[in-house]
């Protein structure tokens, strides 16, 4: 099972809503960390996912975006237990008590480990329905003692400036190897975004489109292709820059038709040729959709 | 205790926004620094004036220079009805400190005694590609260097110890063609659309992926004097300053009012909060609080 971790920003949520009909509850379980005080778009997204039989994990103690300032936020999300599975972002064993404050049992909840994990913490996690851990930030000894593990990582090789992306970068091989952990029930990632959360960035001098693909010649490792526009040392003309990046993508996919899965996200992106530039948020949305769909295709085939 | 250098940060967007939203902590720290110059009861505006006159005497920051340029040249020579100022206007890889537009465009690049002159040649070269006249404004310490190193078409103004701007050399009006590539990248979409419409008498209707290159290629074919005129006329409208608000501020905040992007609600509350009265007791109390919070 694939657990893409997404922040509840506008376009991440829209990506999930648009994908809802297209992804299978057997293959994917989105993890949503709310970042906006206005919960209406989140509720709409949960509803859309529910219609397709998908019950997402929702972090009920968010601490980024609109929730970064306040001491402790516990979300009251409507619909409750039928519509989503609560997930606690836990820095330490004490944070588990937040679940009972909200009236959830550990056995019906997920725990996302956000920091180290010691022996006493491991002991308490036995009943949890799902434990999400960053594979790079846990000792193999602790990992081996956990049950119902979802391994994830922060794989996207983010650059500070779009101008710094090379043609492609390695993403991850976790989707091919998570099954070798007998206690793992799935794997996760932050799609083409990174774990470090950022609000909308400043004006970009270069527009870059990111597209994920499975590299069959390299044991099915996942890679990301980066298609960057020209760079004119100014933030002007985002529309023209988008067009230039999209033309590069198109030319590449015509010459290399086998590289990208022809997902909904991919089709929607290339259909923007000869259409107006819809804004960078939309472009990011298509890349996220394409990443999730490509990963689901792999999970289905594997 | 603050130094004059710390107190100078009162003239920053961050501190002004704080004061507009009713947070006077930093202001009162500054007031404590200038306690001797303040009356028993003083207004927020008094603290700004005190701080500004200390800048004038001991620590002439870039803000101080800009404010003098705005005060002497914008208010002193032009009228706010016919002229406007562009603070921090992007030109190529540089940002022009202060550009005044009336019928023509004049760029003022400020080099305070604390600034370094390394980038000046590159900056001036870009500015000359866009503006009708270019001046460097310096204090005494950079004057001879700038006088020797700048090309003769660049004007020079010296900020004198008595806060006047002394004309050292008049700028020559540029006869060079405008660099359309730089001009286009300095403007917002609606601005270059309006300029192109004005000079070409064409209806500009392109998708957002094409509009930039379409406008750029139209402008390449237009005579420079026409482009210069349309540039001034358009930006005088689109970057108009809020006259009533600017004039309601103490003179020390002239450039702050023009350059800092305050929200409408903050502009209103700032005008009110500047008149707020404090007494010296308040300084003592906050200092006491400050001291106790350290424990």
Layout: helices, strands, pairs:
The complex is a heterodimer of chains A (302) and B (295).
Chain A: E1 2-7, H1 10-19, E2 31-33, H2 40-51, E3 57-59, E4 85-90, H3 97-101, E5 110-113, H4 119-124, E6 130-134, H5 140-145, E7 149-153, E8 168-172, H6 174-177, E9 184-189, E10 208-215, E11 221-228, H7 238-255, H8 264-270, H9 280-301
Parallel strand pairs in A: 1-2, 1-9, 2-3, 3-4, 4-5, 5-6, 6-7, 7-9
Antiparallel strand pairs in A: 8-11, 10-11
Chain B: H1 4-7, H2 13-20, H3 25-33, E1 41-43, H4 44-58, H5 62-77, E2 84-91, E3 94-101, E4 105-111, H6 120-128, E5 133-138, H7 140-149, E6 155-159, E7 165-169, H8 180-186, H9 189-200, H10 211-220, H11 224-238, H12 243-248, H13 254-259, H14 264-274, E8 277-279, H15 280-294
Helix pairs in contact in B: 2-14, 3-15, 9-10, 9-11
- Alpha carbon gap, first and last residue of chain B: 17 Å
Helix share bin of chain A: 25-40%
Order of helices and strands of chain B: HHHEHHEEEHEHEEHHHHHHHEH
Mean of the pLDDT scores of chain A? Answer: 93
Structural class of the secondary structure composition of chain A?
alpha/beta
Assembly category: heterodimer
Q: Biggest sheet of chain B, strands in spatial order? A: 2-3-4-5-6-7
Name the chain pair with the biggest interface and residue counts per chain: A-B, 12 and 13 residues
Number of strands of chain B: 8
Q: What's the tally of helices of chain B?
A: 15
Largest sheet report of chain B: 6 strands, mixed
Portion in helices of chain B = 40-55%
End-to-end separation of chain A: 11 Å
The geometry of chain B reads as: globular
Query: How would you characterize the largest beta sheet of chain A?
Result: 8 strands, parallel, barrel
Give me the Rg of chain A, rounded: 19 Å
Which runs of chain A of at least 5 residues are low in confidence (pLDDT < 50)?
Answer: none
How much strand of chain B?
15-25%
Mean pLDDT of chain B: 89
């Amino acid at each position: 099972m694939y657990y893409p971790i997404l922040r509840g920003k506008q376009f991440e949520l829209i990506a999930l809503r648009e994908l809802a009909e297209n992804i299978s509850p057997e293959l994917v379980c989105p993890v949503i960390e709310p970042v906006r005080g206005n919960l209406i778009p989140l509720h709409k997204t949960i509803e859309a996912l529910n219609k397709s039989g998908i019950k997402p994990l929702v972090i009920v103690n968010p601490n980024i975006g609109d929730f970064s300032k306040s001491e402790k936020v516990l979300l009251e999300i409507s619909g409750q237990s039928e519509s989503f599975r609560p997930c606690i972002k836990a820095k330490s064993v004490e944070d588990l008590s937040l679940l009972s404050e909200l009236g959830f049992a550990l056995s019906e909840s997920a725990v996302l480990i956000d920091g180290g994990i010691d022996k006493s913490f491991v002991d308490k996690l036995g009943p949890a329905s799902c434990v999400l851990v960053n594979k790079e930030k846990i000792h193999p000894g602790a990992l081996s003692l956990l049950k119902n593990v979802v391994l994830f990582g922060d794989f996207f090789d983010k650059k500070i400036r779009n101008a710094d992306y090379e043609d492609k970068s390695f993403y991850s091989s976790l989707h091919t190897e998570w099954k070798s952990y007998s206690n793992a029930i799935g794997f996760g990632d932050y799609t083409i975004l990174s774990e470090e959360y950022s609000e909308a960035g400043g004006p970009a001098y270069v527009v870059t489109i990111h597209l994920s693909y499975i590299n069959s010649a390299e044991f099915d490792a996942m890679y990301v292709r980066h298609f960057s526009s020209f760079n004119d040392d100014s933030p002007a003309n985002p529309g023209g820059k988008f067009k230039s990046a999209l033309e590069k993508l198109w030319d590449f996919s015509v010459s290399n038709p086998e590289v990208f899965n022809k997902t909904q996200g991919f089709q929607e992106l290339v259909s923007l040729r000869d259409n107006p530039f819809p804004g960078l948020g939309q472009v990011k949305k298509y890349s996220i959709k394409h990443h999730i769909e490509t990963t689901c295709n792999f999970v289905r085939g594997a | 205790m603050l130094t004059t250098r710390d107190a100078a940060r009162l003239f920053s967007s961050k501190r002004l926004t704080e004061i507009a939203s009713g947070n006077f902590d930093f202001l009162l720290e500054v007031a404590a620094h200038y306690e001797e110059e303040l009356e028993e009861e003083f207004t927020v505006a008094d603290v700004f004036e005190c701080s500004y006159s200390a800048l004038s005497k001991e620590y002439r920051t870039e803000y101080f220079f800009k404010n003098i340029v705005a005060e002497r040249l914008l208010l002193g020579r032009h009228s706010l009805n016919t002229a406007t100022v562009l603070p921090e206007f992007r030109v190529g890889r540089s940002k022009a400190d202060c550009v005044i537009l009336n019928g023509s465009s004049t760029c003022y690049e400020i080099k305070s005694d604390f600034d370094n002159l390394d980038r000046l040649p590159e900056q001036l070269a870009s500015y000359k590609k866009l503006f009708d006249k270019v001046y460097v404004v310096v204090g005494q310490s950079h004057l001879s260097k700038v006088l020797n190193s700048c090309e003769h078409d660049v004007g020079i103004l010296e900020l004198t110890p008595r806060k006047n701007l002394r004309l050292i050399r008049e700028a020559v009006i540029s006869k060079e063609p405008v660099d359309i590539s730089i001009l286009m990248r300095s403007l917002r979409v609606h601005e270059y659309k309006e300029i192109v419409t004005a000079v070409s008498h064409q209806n500009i209707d392109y998708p957002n992926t094409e509009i930039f290159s379409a406008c750029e290629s139209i402008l390449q074919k237009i005579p420079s004097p026409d482009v210069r005129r349309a540039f001034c006329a358009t930006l005088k409208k689109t970057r108009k300053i809020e006259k009533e608000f600017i004039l309601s501020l103490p003179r020390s905040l002239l450039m702050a009012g023009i350059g800092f992007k305050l929200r409408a609600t903050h502009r209103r509350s700032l005008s009110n909060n500047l008149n707020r009265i404090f007494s010296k007791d308040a300084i003592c109390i906050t200092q006491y609080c400050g001291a106790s919070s350290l424990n």
